[in-house]
Amino acid sequence: MAQAQFQQETSPRGEFVRQPNRFTGRVTAKSTSAPGEGPDEQGRWPLESGRYRLIWSRACPWAHRAVIVRKLLGLEDAISLGTVDPIRDERGWRFSLDPGGRDPVLGIEFLAEAYLLTDPEYQGRVTVPVLVDTLTRQVVTNDYPQLTLDLSTEWTPLATKDPNLLPSELRPEMDRLMQDIYEDVNNGVYRCGFAVGQEAYDEAYSRLFSRLDQLEQRLSHQRYLFGDHVTEADVRLFTTLVRFDAVYHNHFKCNRNKLSEMPSLWRYARDLYSLPGFGDTVDFDQIKRHYYGTHAQINPGGIVPQGPDLSAWTS
Question: Where is this region: Disordered (predicted)?
Answer without folding.
Answer: 1-44
